[in-house]
Structures are given as C-alpha cells and as structure tokens.
Amino acid sequence: MIFGQSMIVVITLAATRLAMGDIIVPGANGSDGVFNPVANSQVDLSLASTGTWNGANGSPVLGVYDPEKWAVVFRYSSVNIPSNVTVTFKNHPSRAPVVWLVSGSVTINGTLSLNGAAGNALGLSEPGPGGFRSGRPRVNSTDIGSGGFGPGGGTITTATNDTSAGAGSYGSLGSNLSGPAYGNPRIIPLIGGSGGSRRYVSWGAVPCNTPGSAYFQPGAGGGAILIACQGSIVVAGTLQANGGSGTSGCGVQGPGGSGGALRIISDSMSGSGTLRAIGGASGGGTGRIRIETNLNSMTDLGDPVASQDFVGATAQLWAEPLSPSLQIMSISSLAAPGDPRASSNFPADMQLSNPEMTSIVVEATNMPLEWAVQVRTVPLSGVAFYTDAILVSGDESYSTWEAQVQFGNGFSVVQARAVAPPP
Fold it and tell me: Is 224:192 a contact under the CB 8 Å cutoff?
C-alpha cells in the first residue's frame, strides 16, 4: 500500500458541548451483530469479503475489506470484551488496519491487542493490522538482511558492527538510523507503526566470555484500529497497539518497531483502563492515540498521551475527498497493482526481467507542487534508500512525478511519500 505524508489539520474547537446521544457514526448499522467473546480469541481478518465499507455485507461477522479505504470494517451492534479475555488479530493479506463501527456501546474489561510481533530468526516479523513488517534477517554469509518496512522503517549499514541499525519511527523518531516520523494527530488516514532493521554485532571476550558475533532481529510495527460508536465506550482493561521488541543476547538487542495507532470516537468515554501505543525495545518510536468524544472521563489518557477533540454531530471516519493523495502508477512502464501486497515471496506484485535503472511514475492529486515526492526502496538484502522524484507535468489538482531507481537482483519493496516544506 502506498502512503503519502498527511497534512497537519488545524481545528477550531466549539465552545459548547453537544447533547448526549447526538453522535452519528456513518455505516454503523449493526449488521455484524454482537461481538462478545467468552474466551481468548483471534479475529482472522483474511476471511473478510472484499467490498465497500458501507455496502452490503456478504459475510456477516467476518467483516468487509475495502481496498480503496485500505481497511477491514466490522459493523457491530455492540462490543463486550470481558475480564481475563484477550482479543488479537490475524492479518488480512493486505495487512490493512481494523475499523469497528458500533451502533450501540463498547465495553473493554479484558485486553484488545494489535501489537507488532517481536523479532524472530525465521523471517519478517508480522505487524499488527495496519502496521508494517520488521527488517529481514540475514540468511547466509552474503546476505546482509534488510531495513524495516513502512514510512518510518529503520535502516542498516554494511558495517561489521552495525550499532547504528535503526528502530521504527511513527509519532516520534526511533533510535539510530530510524526512518522519519509521519502521520498526524488526527490519525487520518488510519495507519500503524513501522518496523525496525536487523542489527549485526561482533564482540571480543566481553560481554559473552568468548569472542563471537550475531544478528539480532528487529520488531514489527504496532497495528491501527478505529473504534467509532454511537453510544459510550468504557475501558477498564487494556487497549494496545505496541511495537514489537527485537531479540536480545549478550547485552545487545535488535531495534524495536514503532507503536501503532488507537483512534476512538464516541459520545462518551470513561474507565480506569490503559491505552498504549508505545515503541518496542530497543528504541522503537511511539505511536499515536486519538480520542474524539463529547465527554471523556478516562483516568488514563494514554501512552503516548492522546490528542483530543469534540466529536461533533457526525463522526468523520475517512480523509476528506479533496485531501492530498499519492500513488505509484507504473514501474518500468508496467502498471502497478491497485491493491499491492508487498510479498517477500513469489508471486510478487510486479516482476522485472532485467533489473537496471528503472523509471517509477507517481501520481499525485490535490497536492501542492511545492511539496517534495520521494520513493523509498527497501531491498530484502541491502540498504534501504530514498530517491527524489521530479515533477513531470500537472498542477495542484493532478500531477505526475518520476523517479529513477537502480534495482538489484531479488525482491525489493517500494513506497512513495509526499513531504510538505517546513512552515
């Protein structure tokens, strides 16, 4: 999935509060019924039917995947997660975030978790839904592994002692060679955290009593969820989207993934529970938390501390139609897929027969021309790098940009982003 850096939106707050019960959540028709797990449960997002977020539900209870919104949407009548019950998610193939549209109320006495996975030696660690994978481990003496994935993915060097290997960034910067911070306090669009990069360290007799070396695997980014309900939300348990931690040993740890995103919309919110979107050890950046409600009496305002606003009469779920957007249209004259999966195995989204200096064409809509467009390339074995795109034609309403990228052999993951100039 391709993302641009979102604009920061300045909001004027009204001085009066709406009456309780006035909130409208578009699409909250209760068609998926009551969600009330009685034991630890994993929601399999890959079972969702493909359609539109507010259209007919072909698979009640299983959700709808909307490729245009890049979200798996559930329309519950109410949600109740009891004490001592933990709800987790299995990713959709697109790794899209989760949206709950609830016509009634939400109670979380147990745990709702969208955490990114910790580092492992078997492959790319999976993020929470809406987040991005960790870097790839080294698999042989000529394969150095990769940086982390996502807009804020960490990167690596080819140095023997890669002490500068980067953690994932999101709401704040990760440690060392992290990627940039991204997103905005409103969490529109809904997006999760980025992965850390693999880390290589060699040592003498200290700290492990014998000389040696090891690759330490990074954590993946935390996921992202939007819970929008027309009634009240009570959180007495835990709602979390933390970044995954890196593997550790001999006093060394792989870089962590960044925290993900929790966006909550309701008429009222209360409880003594916890909201968490923290980065994984070691060094993962924080995620983002957003609360939009007409009355908030939560004891804990989150880590990181949530940004807050009144919800208004009707909840805004998605970006405005004329918001800036960016999409990769072609690579080496081959049309890019509209719903890419960024697979690290065959079949790939696209295949180039002769890797060489390649043209990547990016389409921008509603984007000021003074913004910069960059393409990030993450080889599965090699150092990630950015390439500046050059404006080819167009105006603020529609423009095309082109970047020249040198691909090597093997798999690479490509993303495009737009960067606004400093104020």
Answer: yes
Question: Rounded to a whole number, what is the distance in angstroms from the first to the last CA of the chain?
Answer: 28
**Whether 32 contacts 101, CB under 8 Å:** no
Q: Does residue 133 contact residue 384 with C-beta atoms inside 8 Å?
A: no
In the chain, which residues have pLDDT < 50? 1-20
Predicted confidence at residue 22, as pLDDT, reads 66
Euclidean distance between CA atoms 231 and 246, whole angstroms: 39
Tally of CA atoms within 13 A in the half-sphere of 382 that contains its CB = 15
Single-letter code of the amino acid located at 19: A
CATH superfamily of 325-419: Carbohydrate binding type-21 domain (2.60.40.2440)
Rounded to the nearest 5°, which phi and psi values hold at 22?
Answer: -85, -10
CA distance 393 to 376: 21
Closest CA to 243 of 289, 290, 276: 276
d(CA 368, CA 290): 27
Distance, C-alpha 331 to centroid of its chain: 24
Side-chain-side CA neighbours of residue 268 (13 Å): 13
User: How deeply is 423 buried, as exposed, middle or buried, from its count of CB atoms within 10 A (0-12, 13-18, 19+)?
Assistant: exposed
Domain boundaries, the chain: 1-9+17-320, 325-419
**Both tokens assigned to 44:** 């399999």
Largest Cα–Cα separation, the chain: 68
Least Cα distance to 70 among 327, 278, 418 occurs for 327
Answer for the pair 81, 109: CB distance below 8 angstroms, yes or no: yes
Token match 């391709």: residue?
2
The answer to whether 394 and 362 have CB atoms below 8 angstroms apart is no
Angle value at C-alpha 195, between 286 and 415, nearest 5 degrees: 110
Bond from prior residue into 325 cis (ω within 30 degrees of 0) = no
The confidence score (pLDDT) of residue 16 equals 35
Residue 236, classified by CB atoms within 10 Å of its CB into exposed (0-12), middle (13-18) or buried (19+), is middle
Tokens of 290: 């957003």
Is the Cβ–Cβ distance between 355 and 363 less than 8 Å? no
Task: Name residue 417's beta-bridge partners.
Answer: 374
Q: Sort strands 261-271 and 288-298 into parallel, antiparallel or unpaired.
A: parallel
Three-class SS state of 62: coil
DSSP string, 204-265: SSTTTSS-EEEEEPPPPPP-EEEEEESSEEEESSEEE-PPPPPPEETTEEPPPPPP-EEEEE
